[in-house]
Design a protein that fits this description.
Blueprint: H1 14-29, E1 36-37, E2 46-47, E3 58-66, H2 71-77, H3 83-95, E4 101-111, H4 116-133, E5 136-144, E6 154-165, E7 180-185, H5 194-204, E8 211-212, E9 217-218, H6 219-223, H7 231-239, E10 245-250, H8 255-261, E11 268-273, H9 281-290, H10 294-298, E12 305-311, H11 316-325, E13 330-338, E14 349-351, E15 360-364
Parallel strand pairs: 4-5, 11-15
Antiparallel strand pairs: 1-2, 3-6, 4-6, 7-12, 7-13, 8-9, 10-12, 11-13, 14-15
Helix pairs in contact: 1-4, 3-4
GO molecular function, one term: ATP binding
Organism: Luteimicrobium xylanilyticum
GO biological process, one term: 'de novo' IMP biosynthetic process
Length: 369
């Protein structure tokens, strides 16, 4: 053996990583305001926290998440510039639930082989979504894992930090019986339940390039619809005193009822009227193709409701008007009531999700569509 092994021979191409950074730099810089120091490429992202001195009692909020198996659809279609919206939405919209403004975010991409153009597409999508959310993308990491992931495989994750004034914190402590639930429409499947969705598609024998009349486009295009990023709109809604926003819930893994129950105070029950909205076609297709039971659908997919605002009864009209002005489809979804345990016998209640001792949710009626 005349030549020793090299890192490149082991499957890691550091030059490709450097090229990827060059391709993504401009998109990342567009998310930077004067608070971001040092630019792109440092060991750590720097964010000037002097702005926090304007807060009387700042609380920091943080969240981390990934995209899940939706990345398999992006990889199959070789379309990588939208998956970033799924990542950012999953992270920053958890932070906004408590009323916090997401300040900055970092990302992590693990791949079997660094293809600079592909990695840059992913990060450009993340940066574009951060612009929508008003969040700085201050850093990230791309790791090449040959032998662990295939050459065309990758996974993405991210984390963000936000801030909220202590006396503006949203959540169960503000929610009261008599409050009203406002549903905020999803853009589609978002980024949850794709293990079920992919299993249904495989069972049905459908190809991603199949044109589906109900969708008005191909199956793959529908499945890859980017997650709606709610952060800026929710903060604008919360800042409208007339809307009387008491809380939000982000409808992600576990579905509507399970996530709504987490943000209700113990002793209350939210009644959600299934007939208050029409279930979008993609969810009906999953249901029908896989003969998926309703309970499983409700416990897995958002069914058209991506976020819920909980508002005071007198703030409903103002909240709906604000959503309309923001271009965000919204409607009255249900109400919050005092929970009388003696009436729960035989009722289908959801409570105790994620180990949280909180409220309960009752789903009533039948879906339209």
């Amino acid at each position: 053996m005349t030549d020793g092994l090299t890192y490149a021979a082991a499957g890691v191409d550091t030059e490709a990583g450097d090229k990827a950074v060059e391709l993504m730099k401009d998109a990342v810089r567009r998310t930077h305001g004067p608070e971001v120091l040092g630019g792109v490429g440092g060991f750590a992202g720097l964010y000037d926290a002097a702005a926090l001195t304007r807060y009387r009692h700042p609380l920091l909020a943080t969240s981390t998440d990934g995209v899940g198996t939706k990345v398999a659809i992006a990889q199959a279609l070789d379309v990588h510039d939208t998956i970033g919206f799924d990542l950012v939405g999953m992270v920053v919209d958890d932070i906004v639930v408590v009323g916090a403004k997401p300040l900055f975010m970092t990302d992590y991409i693990a791949c079997g082989k660094v293809v600079p153009e592909r990695i840059a597409d992913v990060v450009r999508g993340i940066a574009a979504a951060c612009e929508v959310a008003g969040t700085a993308l201050v850093g990230g990491e791309t790791a090449e894992h040959p032998g662990l992931l295939g050459p065309d495989e990758y996974d993405v994750a991210g984390a963000a930090t936000g801030v909220v004034e202590a006396d503006a914190l949203l959540g169960p402590d503000r929610v009261r019986p008599g409050d009203v639930l406002i549903g905020l429409a999803s853009s589609g499947l978002h980024s949850n339940g794709f293990s079920l969705v992919r299993a249904v598609v495989k069972h049905a024998g459908w190809e991603l390039d199949r044109h589906v009349d109900e969708f008005g486009r191909t199956l793959g295009e529908e499945l890859l619809t980017p997650t709606r990023v709610y952060a800026s709109d929710c903060l604008a809604l919360a800042a409208d005193d007339a809307a009387q926003v008491h809380g939000f819930t982000h409808v992600t893994g576990g579905g509507l009822a399970a996530n709504l129950a987490r943000v209700l105070p113990a002793g209350t029950v939210a009644t959600v009227d299934r007939a208050s909205w029409e279930v979008p076609a993609v969810f009906r297709a999953v249901r029908d193709l896989g003969k998926v039971p309703q309970r499983d659908l409700e416990n897995t997919l958002n069914l058209g409701v991506g976020m819920v605002a909980i508002v005071g009864a007198e703030g409903v009209d103002a909240a709906l008007a604000r959503c309309e002005a923001l271009g965000l489809p919204a409607w009255v979804l249900g109400t919050v009531e005092q929970h009388d345990p003696s009436t729960s016998i035989g009722e289908d209640l959801v409570t105790g999700t994620k180990g949280v001792h909180a409220g309960a949710v009752r789903m009533v009626g039948s879906y339209r569509g």
